[in-house]
Amino acid sequence: MRVGKCPRRAERGGGNSSDDLPGWGEVPTPAGRFRLGPVRLPADLELLAGWMNDPEVDEFWALAGPPAVTERHVRAQLDGDGRSLPCLGLLDGAPMSYWEVYRADLDPLAAHYPARPYDTGVHLLLGPAASRGRGLGAQLLAALAEMILRQRPRCERVVAEPDVRNRRSVRAFERAGFRVAAELDLPDKRAALMVRDRDPHPA
């Protein structure tokens, strides 16, 4: 499942948002206990590259090819300014998803919507094909959104920008408590801006 990808990374500079996402601990979900773990290269590269080469994933992530393609994408974040952090999602200890948690207000995405300070964005890939199409994405998105809002008190909204063609992703966000706030013309896609507010009844 492809959940958004911004075409360019934020520029280096102030406002570094690096924090200990893998240290946030586990949360219960209907599917099991969920937590984020750090992506480690090269140890996790074979797993991630395998997921990226699934045609259903590649349709929206566009990272199919030799492992070096995935490695460049992930390493740019690991070696970057901390505004985007790649993580493995583990369910009952088993890695089954890939996440990118990023400062949306400091990302090129912010030029395309009325960003607020500390907006936090998420990208999600459900790795094993068996994990897709059964509501698991919505459960994990809801769990992570709650974690973000609890751990980042200055963040008032969690956002994402899935391709509008990816109806499965848009529906998963909606079931996780996000709303479609707008459609955005981004450089590489037309995206649905999904917003999960801290206040369920924003003005």
From TrEMBL:
Residues 34-199 form the N-acetyltransferase domain. Pathway: Siderophore biosynthesis; mycobactin biosynthesis. It comes from Kitasatospora cathayae. Residues 1-26 are annotated as: Disordered. The lineage of its organism: Bacteria, Bacillati, Actinomycetota, Actinomycetes, Kitasatosporales. SUPFAM superfamilies: Acyl-CoA N-acyltransferases (Nat). This is Lysine N-acyltransferase MbtK. Acyltransferase required for the direct transfer of medium- to long-chain fatty acyl moieties from a carrier protein (MbtL) on to the epsilon-amino group of lysine residue in the mycobactin core. Keywords: Antibiotic resistance. Pfam families: Acetyltransf_8 (PF13523).
